[in-house]
Amino acid sequence: MEHEHEPSTGKAALFVLFMVTMIDMIGFGIIIPFLTYLVKDLAEAEGIVQIGLWVGLLMTSYSAAQFLFSPFWGALSDRIGRRPVLMIGLVGNTVFFTAFGFSNTLMFAFGARFFAGVFNGNIAVARAYIGDVSAPHQLATRMGLIGAAFGLGFTIGPFLGGEFSSPAQRWDLFVGTVFETYPYLLPCVVASLLSAGSFILALRYLPESLDLSEQSEHTRRSWGDEMKGMFSNSLSMLRKGSIGAMIWVTMLFTLGFTVMHAVFILYTEMDVLSGGLGFSEKDNGRVFAMIGLFGILTQGVLIGPLTRRFGTRRLIPYAAITTGLGLVLVPYTESSSAWIGLLFVCSLIAIGNGVFQPASSTYLTQIARHEGYELGLVMGAQESLGAFARILGPLTGGIVWELTVRGSFPWDYHTAFHLCGFLMLISMILTWRLPHFKTDSASKSDE
Fold first, then answer.
1. Which residues of 98-131 are buried (b: 16+ CB within 10 A; e: fewer)?
2. Residue 318 and residue 320: Cα distance in Å, rounded?
3. Does the chain have fewer CB atoms within 10 Å around its N or its C terminus?
4. Are 31 and 160 in contact, with CB atoms under 8 Å apart?
5. What is the Cα–Cα distance from 253 to 247, expressed in whole angstroms?
6. What is the Cα–Cα distance from 212 to 221, expressed in whole angstroms?
7. 1-205 and 229-434 agree in CATH topology
8. Per-residue pLDDT tens digits for 178-230
C-alpha cells in the first residue's frame, strides 16, 4: 500500500528537496562575485590590510559551520523528523542571507556567514529523506537530482550575486535607498526570497518521510556520537588501501579546487597595471556562471560517452590534470583578450571538475563493492574528509595570496594558482595506486 502512494508524494517532495539543495548552493555561490569587494570596503573602513586572509576566512566559515552542524541536523532529524529540520534550515537561510547583506564590519560578516552555514548543514538530511521515500531501483536516479541541483545552484548563485550587486550604480530605482547604503544587500535579499518561497512549498508539499513511532532509541545518536563516529570512520577509511588512496585523491582535488574559490576574484578584480583584469562584480558573476554552465553540460552530455569510451578509472587522472592545467593558467590571462582567455581556462576547469565528481564517486562505489565495504561508511568518510578540504582550501588560498601578492615572480599573485596545479598533480599521481576493475572496462570498440 505504501508503494502505491510513493509516486505522488515522491514527485512533490523531490521537487521541494531539489529546491532546498539548489538554494543551499545558491547561498554558497551568491557571495563569490562580490565577496572580495565587500571585504575591501569593510577592511578599508576598519584600517585592515589583510584582504586575502579575510576573504579566505569568510569562505571557510560557511564550510566549517556546515561540517560541524551536519551531524547535529542528521541526529535531530532522526528524533523529530526530516520535514521540520529541513524547514528550520530554510528559515535560517532566509534570515542569515539577508543579515549578510547588512554587514557593516568584518566580524558581523563573519558571524552572518557562519550562521548561514549552520542552517545550510542539512543537505545530508535531504539525502536521508530521499533514502526514506525511494525504492532501491529509484535511489540512484533520485540522488542524481541532488547533484543536478548542486550544479544549477552553483551556476545561478554567482550570476545573481554579480548581476544584483551595487544596484544604485546601474538602476535609478535604487538611488537613495538602503540598497545604495548596502550595495551587496540586493543579491542577499533575492537569495532570502528564494529560500522563503521554498519554505512555503515545503509547508504545503513536503510530507514527513519517517514514521517516528517506529524509531527505536538505539537508532538515535547524539551530536557527540555522530562526530566521534565520523572522525573514527574517516581515519579508518584512509588506512584502507585502495579506498584510502581514492579518498586522498578526492581530498587533494577538492583542496586544489577550493583554493581557487578564494583567490580567483582576488586576481580578476586586481587592477590591470598590477597584473589583474580589473573586473567588476558583474563580470565575475558571469565568469562563475560560465563555469557552472560548462559543468552542467559536462555532466549532462559528456560524462556518459567519455565513460563508455575510456572507463571510469582512466577518466580520474585525466580530469585532475585538466582541472589543474586550467587553474595554473588563470593568472596568465591577458587583459586585452580577457574573455577569450577565461573562456579557455574556465572550460578546462569546469570540464575537468565535471568529469571528476561523478567519476570519483562511481569508482569509489566500485571499490567498496569489490572489496566488501559498507557503501554508507565509505561515502560518509569521503563526504566528511571532502568537507574538511573545503574548509582548508579557501583559508589556505587567502593566506598564500596575502603572503605572496606583493612579491616578485614566481612568488607573487601567480603562486596560489601554481599551488592549485601542484595539488592536482599530486592527486593525479596518487591515481597510479588505484586498481582497474573488469566491470569498469571501456567499450569493446576501444579494445
1. bbbbbbeebeebbbbbbbbbbbbbbbbbbbbbbe
2. 6
3. N
4. no
5. 10
6. 14
7. yes
8. 999 999 999 999 999 998 988 998 888 888 887 776 655 545 566 677 667 76
List all residues 6 or more positions away from 408 whose beta carbon is below 8 Å from its beta carbon: none
- Domain map of the chain by residue range? 1-205, 229-434
- For cell 563493492, what's the residue? 369
Q: Is the pLDDT of residue 268 over 70?
A: yes
Question: Where are any strands of DSSP class E within 86-194?
Answer: none
Helices (H) and strands (E) in the chain, counts: 17, 0
Indicate the DSSP class of residue 298. I
Residues 259, 255: Cα–Cα separation, whole Å = 6
Please give the Cα distance from 228 to 401 (Å, whole number): 34
**Short-list 116, 113, 131, CA closest to 57:** 113
CB–CB of 437/96 below 8 Å? no
- Asked if the 229-434 domain carries CATH number 1.20.1250.20, the reply is yes
pLDDT in the model for residue 159? 92
